[in-house]
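User: Fold this; tokens only.

Assistant: Input:
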Amino acid sequence: MRQIQTLILSIILLTTQISEGQKKCSFQIDTAKILANRNLDSFIADLKSDNFDITNNKKNIPKFIKRQLDCFTGNFRIANPDEPYNSTDIIIRSMPGRQLVFLAQSNDLLVMQYLEGGYVRTSHLLLVKFKDSKIVDLWKGICFHDISTIQDVTGYLELNRNKEWGLNTNIIYF
């Protein structure tokens, strides 16, 4: 009887976590696809063939992508590379918790690296495919290398894609 109660409680908790895990945003993240890097080849091919404008300015994040990031996070506040942000776990509410490192865009792909402050500072790499102001695919990982060119991005992805815990942990977060 105790095992049945434990099983039922576990199912309830797991169901609650799954249903709370992703908000009702216009684009739904396929976590399994990202963690297994199943969409990474397509992104790497586009990175190698597209022409990108590197701006490194948060104002150049397309509004529809910013709205989606806001939906994922509640409020995706980010500072430009030369602006202060909450880089540690000491929070100043007027400052964002993220700082842009690299931002590039082609006609249908956005590449962004940013730092997130906290107890441990984390560097994120975000790739977003879009068409007609709508996100059609997304890949998100961790980046332990400062990006300054598209070649840096492709090199980092190709070098680390098959390493255990190389590009991702076991969760997707922004």
